[in-house]
Design goal:
The protein has 2 domains: 18-58 and 118-292, no CATH class; 299-360, no CATH class. It is globular and about 85 Å long. The chain is mainly α. The termini are far apart. It contains 12 helices and no strands. It is found in: Cell membrane. It is a multi-pass membrane protein. InterPro entries: Virul_fac_BrkB (IPR017039).
């Protein structure tokens, strides 16, 4: 009927209300997940272990560089040493360069040290994989799948992700540090259009690594592209936080002398890693919120399995308690077990339906004990 037709303006308003309601639910779910899972505290733990892995990693690299530079001529090694000192002079004071950087480079470009390589890389792999373990474990809990993957599998996955992150960093970090000028020096002028693709390629590589981190952290098989929103938000949050931290450090350094002295540089690195850890966990919370609003079959089925295991564990606990009561008080315990069996039979269908609805939305409630029938 003509009177029932919806005007285009009314359709636009209704569509906007649906979008606003969906965005609000995403924000509420993300914030709630962050508060329930102590994102700030876990980010501090991950940042600490990430910072702890840097010194042994640098020592391991320093011990291995000597083997690599044996194949270079003395003039080439001297050019690399000079370039490294010039680069350090841009960020550090001259006394620091003379007292720390220059002697360190002399040791680095000397003979290879196998003992430093072995100890350094072992410590770096342990502490670095421990930081990744925080991310993997927290992401699993955010999806309501805590305990679905064993401790050993989680550690192996964290170790593999750390090694993959090191390989990715070997490719991306030099690109970020060198900037587009590296492309200008390496490619001919007729391929200058590649310079325009420099930063898009770096951003795509970072997003792909973060998406893969989120994808493999979920203990069930999910779609890789469903983790792109959280990875994109993580990268934006990280870039914005890095610029904000740099601005704050520039302002404070220009106004007064640092009271931390030689600890200022490690504190700055710690803050930067803390921002990165928060960004990763917030991105994981966003992906978990998307999964609650539009759950995948695999995650819903896995959450139902977790609920089933929790209920079975609670029933076994009640059975052991009832057995102990029966041994102590035979008559009273038998009557209690009969009443509980009657109540569980009456509430089974409604309870199963409620658990299915909650699991479909990503909520895994604790197994509640059935209420006793009055009398």
């Amino acid at each position: 009927m003509p009177g029932d037709a919806v005007s285009p303006r009314g359709a636009d308003v209704a569509r906007w209300l649906v979008i606003r309601d969906t965005l609000w639910r995403l924000v509420v779910s993300t914030v709630g997940t962050c508060f329930r899972n102590r994102v700030t505290g876990l980010a501090a733990e991950a940042a600490f272990f990430a910072l702890l892995s840097l010194p042994p990693l640098l020592f391991g690299l320093a011990g291995s560089i000597g083997y690599v530079f044996n194949s270079f001529s003395r003039s080439q090694v001297e050019q690399i040493r000079t370039a490294a000192i010039e680069l350090a002079s841009r960020a550090l004071t001259e006394p620091t360069v003379d007292a720390i950087v220059r002697p360190t480079l002399n040791d680095v470009f000397g003979p290879g040290r196998f003992d430093i390589i072995s100890i350094g890389f072992i410590l770096a792999l342990w502490s670095g994989s421990r930081a990744l373990n925080v991310f993997v474990d927290t992401i699993t809990i955010m999806y309501g799948l805590g305990g679905h993957r064993g401790v050993v599998r989680t550690r192996v996955l964290s170790f593999s992700l750390y090694v993959m992150g090191l390989l990715t960093g070997v490719v991306t970090l030099p690109l970020v540090v060198a900037g587009p000028r590296l492309v200008d020096r390496l490619v001919p002028e007729r391929l200058g259009v590649l310079n325009e693709l420099y930063w898009p390629v770096v951003l795509v590589l970072c997003i792909c690594f973060l998406t893969t981190l989120y994808h493999v952290s979920v203990p069930v098989r999910t779609s890789w592209r469903f983790n792109i929103p959280g990875a994109t938000l993580t990268l934006l949050f990280w870039v914005f936080g890095s610029f904000l931290l740099r601005w704050l450090l520039t302002v404070t350094a220009g106004q007064s002398t640092s009271i931390y002295g030689p600890l200022a540089a490690p504190i700055v690195v710690m803050l930067w890693l803390y921002l990165l850890s928060i960004a990763i966990l917030v991105g994981a919370a966003v992906n978990a919120a998307f999964d609650r609003l539009w759950p995948e079959k695999e995650t819903s089925r896995a959450r139902m399995e977790v609920v089933r295991k929790l209920r079975l564990r609670a029933m076994m606990s009640r059975l052991r308690r009832d057995t102990e009561e029966q041994e102590r008080f035979p008559d009273a315990a038998s009557e209690t077990m009969v009443l509980r069996a009657y109540d569980e039979g009456q509430e089974h269908d409604a309870r199963t339906e409620a658990l299915a609805q909650e699991a479909a939305h990503g909520e895994v409630p604790p197994a509640a004990e059935p209420r006793r029938r009055p009398g």
